[in-house]
Amino acid sequence: MFYREAGQFKTGYADDMAVFPIRQDRIGIAVILAIAYLAVPMFGSPFFVSTIMIPMLILTMAAIGLNILTGYAGLISLGTGAFMGVGAYACFKLATAFPDVNVLVWVLASGFFSAAIGVVFGLPSLRIKGLYLAVATLAAQFFLQWCFVRIGWLTNYSSSGSIEAARRSLFGVQITGPGASETARYLCVLTLLVALTWIASNIVRGRIGRKWMMVRDMDIAAELMGVRLLPTKLLAFAVSSYFCGVAGAMLLFFHYGSMESIAFNIELSFQVLFMVIIGGLGSLIGSYLGAGFIAALPVVIKFAPQILGIELPSAVVDQVTVMIIGGLIIFFLIVEPHGFARLWQIGKQKLRVWPFPY
Amino acid sequence: MRVNTLLVGTAMMALVGTALPAAAEDSVYIPLLTYRTGAFAGSGIPIADGMHDYFKMLNARDGGIGGVKIVTEECETGYTAQKGVECYEATKAKGALVYNPWSTGITLALIPKATQEKIPVLSMAYGLSAAAMGKTFPWVFNPPLTYWDGLSVAIKYVGDKSGGLDKLKGKTIGFIYLDAPYGKEPIPLLEGLAKDYGFKVAKYPVPADKMQDQSSQWLNVQQDNPDWMVMWGWGAMNPTAVKEAAKVGYPMDKFIGVWWSGSEDDARPAGPGGKGYLTLNFTATGADFPAVQDIVKHVFDKGNSSVKEKSKIGEVNYNKGVYNSVLMAEAIRTAQKITGKKVINAADMRLGLEALEISEARFKEIGLGGFAAPVKVTCDDHSGAHAVYLQQWNGTKWVKASDWIAPMKDKVRPLLEKDASDYTAKNAPWPARSEDCPKS
Amino acid sequence: MEQVLEVLSMVLVEPFARMATNPAFLVQVIWEGFVSGVLYALIALGFVLIFKASGVFNFAQGIMVVFAALTLVGLHEAGVPAWVAVALALVVMYVLAVGVERIVLRPLVNQPDIILLMATIGLTRVLVGFGELVFGGEPKVMIANELGIPSGVWRIPLFDRVVVIKLIDLTAAIVAIVMVAGLAFFFSRTRIGRALRAVADDHQAALSVGISLEQIWVIVWFAAGIVALVTGIMWGARSDVSFALEIIALKALPVLILGGFTSVPGAIVGGLIIGIGEKIGEIYWGRLIGGGIESWLAYMIALLFLLFRPQGLFGEKIIERV
């Protein structure tokens, strides 16, 4: 009833290949974009924008990256945190070496560095599969983290070992560094995310994405049908690491402003993997929903008692939050192993047939 | 406060947006960023208790400071920068006077933010050493001394015991450290001093995931057999290192830890083998101070403390927490004196911190005579390079093992200056200091 | 050219020269590597048991170590005698095994590997929160003396020098070897062990001959719990009992991929290769590039082996059909 495609005819190939073939989807996406671009910056409190929205959107980007690798190409990686770190350090180096170039260019360029590193650590994927590969990617996680600490050049030999986002602006508005308003940072993050999501959605539903899915479903069969495994798998690593790298650079420049290597630890890798699994493997929408759940919910739960005026020791709140999140993860894995993306589809189906369910 | 109208998702926002209480009359608000969870909770819990209990005691005994109650609120950081920044964002709008990040990572993340938003950061003997340069970092304070100062004291002590700094020539000093920015920070100074005095440095990094298995590091120590060992450790790294040192038979009275490696929990697990282990410290241990006894009387005995056993009051890290609160409380008093206001704000607090001076007499007055060396913060020096002493583990408790030793200011200061200018270059354009120095 | 030669000699000659000039130290290094190797093998064994029987890659093994050790020390602090506390800790681990089987595993039967992996990470979170809530985050001292673990040191003269052997390390090695041998015996010689292997081979076939999957799962999780308790006692006695102990479980992962997820001998051999390999690498080569390389060296060793045997040294051959 609310969501029916009846009466919407595709009259050309272009229509058939559109990202949003159904009118309701187009309206929906327009409404969501309007909310994201107008309502959130206008009405959201600074805390909401800076502490919930910005990290959530940045982690969505990383989740999309990992989803390309795990959800579409079927290669599990536990090195996401380190690949994000590569992006952050690359962006820091580029931005300090060439301060005159717009920082957004460097944020986008830093992804190429992590893509290159990703390809190197993707090489074993040709021989190693499944959980063995997952554990092998931990090599990347630990090795790169060691590099971040050890190679002084990466931090410009700073004695504190931290990397910082310098003040940079776009069209005269400061967007990074201390003093950048949360609205400016938020809009930058949102725009980058929307643009890269659009690119990702076109990659995954095109020729390349289909190859990835063939490899995911059965790589030997794919090989027999003429998919060359080496370039396909490595491309998946490259594209995935690109997204993760950009996310890492954004995390430094638009969220924290100053980071040390420990922030890119294995916990971050797990966090992003959770987003992908809870959100739904092989679904871009799922990456958004998963990131919302994993990144925003703990903050909400943690600060809820305080906001509601309930006095609880902060440590207890934190411990309970950790337990609730862990419990919810298990709960959702049991109830819907295909993630929120499947719930979303079921919801759409329900809307389609309402009020006459079969 | 703006009105939030969106329904989905913004119900939350609305809560955040409207529920921020304005500072009530005659109270000041101090958020305490603490960590009672995570891998470093062992050090975080006593510190948090100490900070909390001193303020509670002031509220209960004196009705606050200058008639103004101190409202504290703990926010759990788990020692991670992510949660630390969340805590900062969540509490800053409530009129936070000052932040105590209690983690190098959080300190580094807060320095640019807090500088911009004009809220002081008090990182007591941790964080960014260069923050001592008050001219560059008007909003950051790291009394009573920096890591570099601490290292110079350790070397001075080593020199004393060897019969003079010139006798260090040809000796080897081993440096075992947590392989993270915190542990690596002293290295430039250590190498500089090595050049000046002609000793050799052997470095033993301990990666964070090997904190509990340091056998390789100590095998290397065994092989190199350095004349002295210096440690920059934290959390689970400390007790493991002390145990391993005892195992390889390293002479414990030649093993010096930084002040964050010197709690009871660090030395106790080694049992009798830990006897003789030395660490730097800038606060006295024990509860034999009138103010600490007041904490027992007004807070612990009334069941208002989260300390479980009375014996924990007066332990090293607890006293560090108390000291941190003493610095804040005295800064509030100073600020009240300077501004003439009762209820001060963050900018006033900055003035108070910058003019902070706790003399020996003043320490006695607040019931903490001999608790710490006199502290004086100036506009130019936000750290002050104050003296520390060495304490030694006698198998059951820490005992004082040296006099108060002043750091080598002449060696440290140039490094601080260089580091501060590096920082500003990296973060250009770093705002020039616009705040006037308080008149003295 | 000279520089190249110099580097080559630093990498290829000097380390061996150092080994040759001080053989006692080499023995010491190998001993330390052996002890950590055995302890890695012990943790890896916990993973292998569960993976074999239920196909779950149990990331919660690390927190189970912490949880078991905390329960033991916590009970002892509450006044329970040491050995009774051990028994009670085992009961707690059994309850945990039953709970995990009922609440987590049973509803997730037949899900892909990654879902099960994530479920165990979720379980980790729950246990972390619960453990901190109950026991607090303070580090505790392992009750090694009460359990009769010796704390002295043996100094054995060798090649004019002394090799130091910590009795606790010796105990740990012996206990670990006994545990491993016991489990190997249990797997191959007992009725339950045969049932376990049947389940590992084929769930459905095992079900059809009357083996109760639920029961088997409880048994393996309980066995992993016992392994966790022993690991917790040994590592706890070497440092202290705190939540940081969770990290050491990560050290077992390269052992696992090296030895194969399903192989008990693989866990042992893998543990020894990694344990001794990373010590020798760190001591003799690590300092050429600044030291502290242990955190990733193990993975590199494992990767090197994997390139030749993708299923690990002793893993079951992966046969793929289209």
From TrEMBL, chain A:
PANTHER family: ABC TRANSPORTER PERMEASE PROTEIN, HIGH-AFFINITY BRANCHED-CHAIN AMINO ACID TRANSPORT SYSTEM PERMEASE
Highest taxon of source: Bacteria
Keyword set, alphabetical order: Cell membrane, Membrane, Transmembrane, Transmembrane helix
Keyword set includes Transmembrane: yes
Species, as recorded: Prosthecodimorpha hirschii
Location in or out of the cell: Cell membrane
TM ranges: 27-49, 56-83, 103-123, 130-153, 184-204, 234-256, 262-281, 288-308, 320-341
One Pfam family matching this protein: BPD_transp_2
InterPro entries: ABC_transp_permease (IPR001851), LivM-like (IPR043428)
Protein name (record): ABC transporter permease
CDD domains per UniProt: TM_PBP1_LivM_like
GO CC annotations on file: plasma membrane
GO-annotated molecular function: branched-chain amino acid transmembrane transporter activity
Recorded topology in the membrane: Multi-pass membrane protein
Entry annotated with the keyword Cell membrane: yes
From TrEMBL, chain B:
Lineage: Bacteria, Pseudomonadati, Pseudomonadota, Alphaproteobacteria, Hyphomicrobiales
Leucine-binding protein domain span: 28-395
UniProt cross-references to CDD domains, sorted A to Z: PBP1_ABC_ligand_binding-like
Name of the protein this chain belongs to: ABC transporter permease
Signal sequence coordinates: 1-24
Record keyword Cell inner membrane present: no
Keywords, ordered alphabetically: Signal
Record-stated family: Belongs to the leucine-binding protein family.
Transmembrane segment boundaries: none
